[in-house]
Structure formats: structure tokens, C-alpha cells
Amino acid sequence: MIQKDFTLSIGNIIWVIGIIFTMGIAYSQIGQLGEDIIVLEKRLEKKIKVINECEDKINDLEIEIAKINSCKNKK
């Protein structure tokens, strides 16, 4: 009877250790994902800035093309 209780107790301890270990891994992964999200947001902001700059350049070029075409049509 005593040995059965001792075995059961060791089994419970192993389960508790396993759960704590799993929770530690999950916490670590959540922290890493948070850092990854911050890095991705910074990269996305840079790409949005580049896209906006390119869009402005395209608009300027379209205006120049319209001016050139209007000058050609006047001649």
C-alpha cells in the first residue's frame, strides 16, 4: 500500500514538472512572437514609406508626361 502511494506521488510530480516545463516553453514562444511582430511592423512601415514615395514620383512623372503631350499637341 505504501509503495503504491509513493509511485502515484512520483507520477504526479512528473506531471507537474511536465506542465511547468510546457508552460515555460509556451511563455518563451509568446515572447519571441511579440518580438517578431515588432520587427515585422518596422519592416512594413519602411515598405509603406517606399511605396508612398514611389507613388509620389509616379504622379509627378504623369504630370510631366501630360505637359509634354499638351505641348506636342499645340504645335
Description:
- It is a single chain.
- The protein is an all-alpha fold and 75 residues long.
- It is 97% helix and 0% strand.
- It is built from one helix and no strands.
- It has one helix at residues 2-74.
- The radius of gyration is 32 Å and the shape is rod-shaped.
- The termini are far apart.
- The mean pLDDT is 88.
Counting DSSP E segments of at least 2 residues, the number of strands comes to 0
Strand and helix order: H
- The computed structural class is mainly alpha
Identify low-pLDDT runs.
Answer: none
Mean pLDDT over all positions:
88
Distance between the terminal alpha carbons, to the nearest Å? 110 Å
Inertia-based shape = rod-shaped
Q: What is the count of DSSP helices, taking H or I runs of 4+ residues? A: 1
The radius of gyration is: 32 Å
* Helical content band: over 70%
Major beta sheet summary: none
Percent range for β-strand residues: under 5%
Descriptive key words:
single chain; rod-shaped; 1 helix; 0% strand; 75 residues; mainly alpha
Summarize this structure briefly.
This protein is mostly helical and 75 residues long. The chain contains one helix and no strands.
Element layout with pairings:
Layout: H1 2-74
